[in-house]
Amino acid sequence: MLITVSGPPGSGKSTNAAGLAERLGVEHVSGGDIFREMAAERDMTPVEFNEFAEEDPRFDHKLDGRLREIAATRDELVLESRLAGWLAADHADFRFWFDAPIAVRAERIAEREAKPVDRARAETERREDSERKRYRELYDIDIDDLSIYDAAYNTARWGPERFLDVLVATVDAHDPDDDEGKTPIEGVSYDF
User: Fold this and answer.
1) Measured between alpha carbons, how far is 139 from 189 in angstroms, rounded to an integer?
2) Is 11 annotated among the ligand-binding residues?
3) Is 12 annotated as a binding residue?
């Protein structure tokens, strides 16, 4: 089963995707980890690299192409990235969207990156604006359109263990036979 996890920075994508993969006994691939590695290779923060990528789309195409290839060639996987649901539209068995209020997400990022909350919030908002612009320009994707997702959750509503219970229950309740003959986003094809 291929499951995608998407959402904005600080929404709990990485933590919950890794936990879900572990509970299901499948592989986890994080687009965010790959993106941060690409930024570090250029001695940039993720925000700086986002803005740099606005000027040079090769970096988005490289990352997104790699993730799309992973989605097309691997089974038994939780693929996590902002665009994972779109990248794996043809192959995903289930697509999750996670979100939380910006105040909660900024606190999570501040704690993770050991920085003040107001700075984390400002950087997160800049990053989201940059990504929203790039996804629209590169792929004509409206990242705020959640219609492709099978389930969307506000991750601020549960603690980590309880939320993993919710995710596993959602996956367990999903019957792939109900999807037969359905194309969730007919005619959508993106050149990543």
Assistant:
1) 9
2) yes
3) yes
Give the structural domain span for 127: 2-179
pLDDT above 70: percentage of residues in the chain: 91
30 marked ligand binding residue: no
Distance CA 95, CA 109 (A): 24
The pTM score is 0.83
Q: Which amino acid is at 82?
A: R
Q: pLDDT tens-digit profile of 108-125?
A: 999 999 999 999 999 999
* 8 marked ligand binding residue: yes
The CA distance from 99 to 153, in Å, is 6
Residues 6+ apart with CB under 8 A from 185: 89, 147, 148
**What CATH number does residue 7 fall under?**
3.40.50.300
SS3 74: coil
Which of helix, strand or coil describes residue 105?
helix
- For residue 1, what are its two tokens? 């089963």
